[in-house]
Fold:
Amino acid sequence: MTSNRFKKAASIAVAALLLVLLCAALVIQFAGGKCPVPTWQQLRAFFGVPLQTEESAPQIADGSTVVYVLDVGQGDAVLLCQDGRWCLIDTGPAEAEDALLYDLDALEVETLDYLVLTHPHADHTGNARAVLQNYPVQTLLLPDWQPGPEDTADWPRNLAQAAADSGAEILTTEAGDSYSLGGGTLQILQGGSAEAADDSVNNASLCTLFTAGDFRFLDTGDAEEAAEQQLLDTYGTSLHTTLFKAGHHGSYTSNSLAFLQAAAPQAVAVSCGLNNDYGHPHRAALQNFAAVGAEVYRTDLQGSLTFIWQNDTLTVETTADSAELAA
Structure:
């Protein structure tokens, strides 16, 4: 009975989404194309469409590793789960606040062991204060970045105060630091002004490697080719990874072929907004992903992505798959 009610509610929610999108298209047509279309993640949060339906929910065994690349539009928010412990890497842009908080609630996140902010750009830190205000966070991890005289980027206003009010410990990280998450380990590979390949904020991004058994997840924030080259020079083929979160939303300024050949990812997750102004992911990046034989998954086309590593096998579930099943 409960299963049938769930399926019916999910079907109604998806039908409502389609109706709203149709109405929005008509309004835009009559308004001369000047009205904004609500994004998928905004509608999903508003109508309460789950990340996965009861039919599509994967059976996750104890000790398995799960990486959720959450659909926050043109931004990044990656949630790691290992043995019931949680780590959130970046928080997406402010306009995705409802969607992000809804997803964390839907996944039954109660406490974050770590909140990692890779670099001070709004599409990565826009909901940092909201997360700190709504969830107990044990540790806030930041790169060792200090703004230069021409930098316009900065951490969210009152971030330190929000962390203090929540009881979170603030740690400035450096290469070589490591942090336990259940039976896994989050390693800091590089990041911060002391290690940046040039003066750009993107190249100061925290670059992290999460390992659990044979599973390896590489996240380089918005690090561009100069920072990738520094990683390559330092670590070489030890960068090899199971899953790679595409650098800088799939930009051609990141995701160099030499770097990807060293990382040799089995799968690549691109976090970007539908029809975004930057053209992400760029054709050159997609060509490089194909050149190394990686399977590519995209939040702009498939919604939130769930990667499950168990029994030495990587499987993927998407929001789009769940919506199709619900309908």
Observations:
- Residues 72 and 96 are 5 Å apart (CA to CA).
- The two ends are 18 Å apart (CA to CA).
